[in-house]
Design a protein that fits this description.
Layout (H helix, E strand, L loop, with lengths): L1 H39 L6 H46 L8 H20 L3 H14 L3 H21 L3 H18 L2 H12 L14 H10 L9 H8 L18
Helix pairs in contact: 1-2, 1-7, 1-8, 2-7, 2-9, 3-4, 3-5, 4-5, 4-6, 5-6
């Protein structure tokens, strides 16, 4: 159930990243072409009047766009936070042991015997081969995770005999194999989620220079450069934030 929920959150995040920018660009194009054409072809308005009316229309459209982007960013941040919390929980949950308690007990005994054998060993190559042979016997995540816990002490014992780079590399190779087997599908998916949702509240819904971004810029002007900082854009439109073009809220619609 947990991994199913995480998959659902993945899907929500993926759809936002994949479709939101395209949806906004399409809606702008379909919703603004006809009204802009009517303004530009209005025989009762002189050029200054047309320009002012077009500017007002674009400003209104820009505000609507940025308000939608603010909401979408907040929704994505909520999904990212939920997915991140769930992924962390999944990573910290202990791997369940196999149902056969006898097999688990035998593993524990063999692991203890291995640790004792390595501690008494004076030949580093023999010790490394013994560790590798032991880890090769166990494929289930539980056994691998238990061996993973014991591995630091094994490393310490072996490197006390010989700390050469060659032997450290051999131990690193063995550990990589153990780590791979210890990673359950749930943990693997959790790791993917933590990486995928690392943008959290800093999600950029539009890629600069993309067709979607260019379309938005075509219809609402230079203020589209703030499409990934919608709060800033709204501040500019409200005259609360100054722009390089001059006083707050001016020259932000026209290119």
């Amino acid at each position: 159930m947990t991994i199913q929920k995480l998959n659902e959150l993945f899907e929500k995040g993926y759809e936002t990243k994949r479709m939101f920018a395209t949806t906004i660009a399409t809606q702008l194009r379909e919703g603004m072409n006809e009204p802009l054409a009517k303004i530009r072809n209005d025989q009762y308005l002189a050029s200054p009047g047309k320009k002012a009316k077009e500017e007002e229309f674009k400003r209104k459209a820009a505000r609507e766009v940025f308000e939608v982007v603010v909401k979408e960013k907040a929704t994505y941040a909520k999904v990212a936070a939920e997915a991140t919390a769930l992924a962390k929980k999944m990573k910290t949950e202990a791997t369940k042991p196999p149902a056969n308690a006898v097999d688990v007990k035998l593993f524990e005994q063999e692991l203890a015997a291995l640790q004792t054998s390595i501690m008494l060993s004076t030949n580093v190559d023999t010790a490394i081969k013994a560790i590798d042979a032991f880890q090769s016997k166990y494929e289930e995540p539980y056994y691998a995770s238990e061996l993973q816990k014991a591995f630091p002490s094994l490393i310490q014992t072996v490197t006390a005999i010989d700390d050469s780079p060659m032997h450290r590399q051999a131990l690193r190779y063995i550990y990589s194999s153990i780590q791979a087997k210890a990673t359950t599908p749930e943990v693997a998916r959790a790791n993917e989620a933590l990486a995928y949702f690392s943008d959290g509240e800093d999600i950029k819904l539009f890629r600069e220079g993309s067709p979607q971004h260019d379309t938005v810029k075509t219809y609402i002007g230079a203020i589209a450069n703030h499409i990934n900082e919608p709060e800033t854009a709204l501040g500019i439109l409200d005259g609360k934030i100054e722009t390089f073009a001059g006083s707050a809220g001016t020259h932000v619609i026209s290119e």
